Amino acid sequence: MKKRVVLVRFNQGFGFNGGGGGGRDDGATARILGNLALAIGLTYLSMTGQLGWVLDAIVSVWLFAVLLPIVGLGAFLWWAGRDMVQGTVRLLQFSALAFLSQNFFLV
Prior knowledge:
Layout: H1 28-48, H2 51-82, E1 84-89, E2 94-99
């Protein structure tokens, strides 16, 4: 007695993979909608003449983020330099660095 083998293949339609979402999400839809919303928003701001303050705000935040650490580092180095004293220990003839705000004893 011969056995019959039937081969059934799915997903051979128009490339829609059977529909139903396929169980995976690569974020393409969200990315497209986000880009579309950004393009619409920038177009609206540009056409109404309000794009300038948005760009000014972006530049201001960028400058603040770049300049604040530089100014802060300079202020810290100035403050730390005010509190440091350098001298030589006469008995041992070596250079020592100490902070004025700390109690220290050289023996």
